[in-house]
Design a protein that fits this description.
Helix content is 36%, strand content 17%. It has helices spanning 24-30, 33-39, 63-83, 98-105, 137-141, 147-150, 174-183, 190-196, 198-208, 242-254, 275-287; strands at residues 3-10, 42-49, 86-92, 112-116, 164-169, 186-189, 215-220, 258-264. It has an 8-stranded parallel beta sheet, with helices on both faces. Helix 1 packs across helix 11. The chain is globular, with a radius of gyration of 17 Å.
C-alpha cells in the first residue's frame, strides 16, 4: 500500500452567489475518484460530507457565521486526518472551504500551499466588490479580514505568505492586485506560463517551497480554460490547458511532498456530462502518482 487517503466532502455554496457548487462532491465521487485512487495502491476511505445548511434557508447576514461553523468542522477533520497519517482530499464546494482545510493540515506543523486558480482570492471586506467569502479565502489564511474567519481553529494566520505560490492567475480586482504585490506571495500568472512553459513554472514553485517538508495543493478547477472545464461558476477565458494542468500535477507529485488537497468550484448544473468532475479526478490521480508510463 502507498498509504492512506481520506475523502471528506464539504458541499458549501455559501461563500459565493452562483448556485450549484454544493453538488461538487457528488459529481467528483460519481466520476470515480475513490476507485481511481485505489487502483494506484492507496487505502481509501470516504467520510461522507460535512453537513451544510441549505443556502435558501439562511439570511444574508448569517452566511459568514455558517461558513465559520462548517470551516471549524473541516479544520478538526483535517487535523485528525494528518494526526492519523492520512492524506485528506477535500471535495468542495466553493473555495471558502480552504479556510478550514488548510488551517487544519497546518495545525501541528508548517505547510506550503500551491494555490491553483484563475483568481487571487486575496480580497478583504474593504476591497471586495461582491462581498463573497470565496474571494477572500487566501487573504484570510494569511491573517487578513474578518476576525471570525481568521481565528477559525486557532488564532491568527495559518500560513506565511512566503510559503504560498499562486499559479494560473488571470483575473484580479485592482485593489486585490495591489495587495498581492505587497503580500510576499509568489504569483505566476498565465503570462509567465505562456512565456516560460508549465514545466519551468512548476519547478520554480517547488523551489520556492523547498525549505518545507509538506505541500497542500488547493485546486480551483476554474484555473483551467472553460473549453476544458465548462462546469465552473466563475469561468475566465485563457486558462490552463488539460495537459498543462496534468504536467503541473505530475511535477508536484514527483516532489513527494504532497500531504493534502482541495478540489473546489465544480458546478455540475452547468457542466456537460460531468466533464469537469472527470477532469478534476484525472488531475487528482496525477497528483497522487499516476503516470503515463
Amino acid at each position: 500500500m502507498k498509504g492512506s487517503v481520506r475523502i471528506i466532502g464539504i458541499p458549501v455554496d455559501l461563500g459565493q452567489s452562483h448556485r450549484g457548487v454544493d453538488m461538487g462532491p457528488s459529481a467528483i465521487r460519481y466520476a470515480g475518484l475513490l476507485s481511481r485512487l485505489r487502483e494506484l495502491g492507496y487505502a481509501v476511505t470516504d467520510e461522507g460530507n460535512i453537513q451544510v445548511p441549505v443556502r435558501d434557508s439562511l439570511s444574508e447576514d448569517t452566511l459568514v457565521k455558517e461558513i465559520c461553523k462548517v470551516c471549524e468542522i473541516a479544520y478538526q477533520k483535517a487535523c485528525k486526518a494528518i494526526e492519523e497519517n492520512c492524506k485528506p482530499v477535500f471535495l468542495g464546494g466553493d473555495h471558502s472551504i480552504s479556510i478550514g482545510t488548510i488551517g487544519g493540515v497546518s495545525h501541528h506543523s508548517t505547510v506550503g500551499v500551491i494555490w491553483i486558480d484563475a483568481h487571487g482570492d486575496f480580497n478583504t471586506p474593504s476591497t471586495s466588490t461582491s462581498g463573497n467569502v470565496h474571494g477572500m479565502a487566501l487573504s484570510v489564511l494569511t491573517g487578513q479580514g474578518l476576525p471570525e474567519l481568521v481565528n477559525i481553529g486557532r488564532k491568527g494566520a495559518k500560513v506565511k505568505p512566503g510559503n504560498v505560490v499562486l499559479i494560473g492567475v488571470r483575473e484580479l480586482d485592482q485593489n486585490e492586485r495591489e495587495n498581492l504585490k505587497k503580500s510576499g506571495i509568489t504569483v505566476y500568472t498565465m503570462r509567465e506560463i505562456d512565456e516560460e512553459g508549465m514545466n519551468v513554472i512548476a519547478r520554480k514553485a517547488l523551489m520556492r517551497l523547498n525549505h518545507l517538508s509538506r505541500i497542500h495543493v488547493s485546486l480551483d478547477i476554474d484555473s483551467l480554460d472553460p473549453i476544458a472545464v465548462p462546469g465552473v461558476g466563475t469561468p475566465v477565458s485563457g486558462g490552463l490547458t488539460y495537459r498543462e494542468a496534468h504536467l503541473l500535477m505530475e511535477v508536484i507529485s514527483d516532489s513527494g511532498l504532497v500531504c493534502s488537497m482541495d478540489i473546489v468550484e465544480i458546478n455540475p448544473i452547468i457542466d456537460h456530462c460531468n466533464q469537469t468532475a472527470k477532469t478534476a479526478v484525472d488531475l487528482a490521480v496525477s497528483l497522487f502518482g499516476k503516470r503515463i508510463f
